[in-house]
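Example pasted here:
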Amino acid sequence: MPDLYDVAAIGNAIVDVIAPATDAFLAENGLTKGAMMLVDPKASAALYSKMQSAVEASGGSAANTIAGLASFGGKGAFMGKVADDQLGRVFAHDMRAIGARFENQPLVGGPATAVSMINVTPDAQRTMCTFLGASVEFTDSDVDAATVEAAKIVYLEGYLFDAEAARRAFAKAAALAHGAGRKIALTLSDSFVVERHRGGLLGFIETQVDLLFANEAELLALFETTSFDEACEALRTRCDLAAVTRSDKGSVILSQGERLTVKAEPVEKVVDTTGAGDQYAAGFMFGLSRGRPLQACGQLASLAAAEVISHYGPRPQVPLKDLAASRGY
């Protein structure tokens, strides 16, 4: 089958509501700084009523990655579940507007489209309270075989590991991708996801994943260690290729034959870290899908992450293709 997409992603289809907040606000509302917490519709609405003036934008981790890929000039597809409501229609419009394929049928008669309340403190840390709504209704029947088989890389969002039906969808996507000679990529998404599903994630990584994305905290949680080097060596034996981000320390790329360090791109002011990992994955997979060396993939990834943390919102505000060209990447 011909290559129609650089990356096809499966993830939670979520509308993000992003607002500035203080540490005191987090404490008053029982929020764990820097974490993603799942909430019900009532708690979500209550938090929304207390938040400062917010920016609302289509989001969701894997969807943000596809937006970054498109900004580099890549061709992407997204699979996820929205409801047949206003936010669901906005989400679908936004994905198609960036040139991404998004054809999943909306959910009728079930929960509303997912919403994530994101409070950003002055140190740029984001604390997320997410009502998953319709997004957790994604099942293996929503995995489009033709799209998976036509993508160079199939990218899976770790947040979906919370739903059993979505884990079955992951298994189907992995079987289809490997049957067509494609690569499966997975992002761990959050340390709390790792804590909840460590055994399942390790098994999936060892048997199905060709490329793993994680940040340092997630990697340490996965192997229950405080030693970064120890965790890297443990991961190297379980996965052919991995990219681990370390905030201002840059990132480390692990393969069977080498360990590369990529410096973080300089940022004048860090405003909001929402979407940093998503855009890192976008740059890395864009480079990999175009046959770039691993070091160059890491540079594109760091460039995309640096751009998105310089402003509010999880998606690029300038064309990453132009930004990369201006840096000689």
